[in-house]
Amino acid sequence: MSVKLILTLTLAKLQKLIKADEIYKQYDEKLKDARISAQTVIGQSEKEAKEVVAQEIGQARKDAANLIEKTNKELEAQKSLALEKLETQVDELIQLIKEKLLGKEAVL
Question: Which of 59, 61, 88, 99 is deepest in the core (most CB within 10 A)?
């Protein structure tokens, strides 16, 4: 083989290596861009998920507070009703005791 042929073949191989290196660098750059893009999407998704969770927790707290308030009102109403019934029963018992002790004619 002549030196010229060897140099030509070597130059052709070198050019192919340079081209392959350029392609690899392009691929590597695209891969880096894809990773950055994916991280951005992941970060945004995490942020949105946290916001949704915070909103859901806030709504759950409001719902719980409303339920507690409603329950307290219902309990207060039941308490008032029970006290009224108790007062009526106490008055009736007092009247019965008076009648037993003093007779039916005695009205105080």
Answer: 99
